[in-house]
């Protein structure tokens, strides 16, 4: 059996896009995908530590997480791998 590890953020789901939308909605700040140059969102989004805490709390609400769209083709690839008998583990730094 072939084992496949897949990351959740921006591999299976459009996390960065969802985060830029949340940033605009919650903080009235606009950052394009092309402007994100660091995994440190306080740097990429220009947030203070307190703002980052608020942002991350909001971004990890179950209602928010379920709204993040899948990447184009991700569901079909996962289904194909499953059908081929591959073991698929999703990796993420997100809370369980």
Structural commentary:
With 96 residues, the chain is mostly helical. Helices cover 46% and strands 10% of the residues. It contains five helices and two strands. It has helices spanning 15-27, 41-44, 49-59, 62-67, 74-83, and strands at 3-7, 87-91. It has a two-stranded parallel sheet with strand order 1-2. It is elongated. The protein starts with a strand and ends in a 5-residue tail after the last strand. The mean pLDDT is 93.
Keywords:
96 residues, mainly alpha, 5 helices, elongated
User: Element order, helices and strands?
Assistant: EHHHHHE
How much of the residues is beta strand, in percent?
Answer: 5-15%
Strand order of the largest sheet: 1-2
Largest sheet: 2 strands, parallel
Counted by DSSP, the helix tally is 5
Name the poorly predicted regions. Answer: none
Work out the helicity level: 40-55%
Task: Evaluate the radius of gyration.
Answer: 15 Å
Distance between the termini: 26 Å
DSSP summary, beta strand count: 2
User: Overall 3D geometry?
Assistant: elongated
The overall pLDDT, averaged over residues, is 93
Secondary structure class reads mainly alpha
In short:
The chain is mainly alpha-helical and 96 residues long.
